[in-house]
Amino acid sequence: MTGWRKYWKPKSVTFWSSVTPISVGVFMASTPLHGFDALAFTADNLTGNVGSYALINGGLVGIGLRAAL
């Protein structure tokens, strides 16, 4: 496979376990734009107060590792 299809594996559990932290991280990072402070605070507490940058990077690493295998 070439291009982005190498990374897009919607039937893989690894793919979804990597997309989830990316989604949560983007949601937490964009709090000033959407204004859902209570939901972002809850997501921050559920993830163990890990920063949004760490969630996004961790998700990208997971997708990259999945594509390498």
Number of strands: 0
Unreliable residue stretches: none
Helix content: 55-70%
Strand content: under 5%
Radius of gyration: 13 Å
Mean pLDDT, nearest integer?
Answer: 91
The computed structural class is mainly alpha
Shape: elongated
Largest sheet at a glance?
Answer: none
Number of helices: 4
- Terminal CA distance reads 12 Å
Helix-strand string: HHHH
General description of the model:
This protein has 69 residues and is mainly alpha-helical. The chain has a domain at 13-28 and 37-68. Helices cover 70% and strands 0% of the residues. It contains four helices and no strands. It has helices at 13-29, 31-34, 37-46, 52-68. The model has no long low-confidence stretch (mean pLDDT 91).
Outline of this structure?
The protein is an all-alpha fold and 69 residues long.
SSE topology sketch:
Blueprint: H1 13-29, H2 31-34, H3 37-46, H4 52-68
Helix pairs in contact: 1-4
Question: Top keywords for this entry?
Answer:
single chain; 69 residues; 0% strand
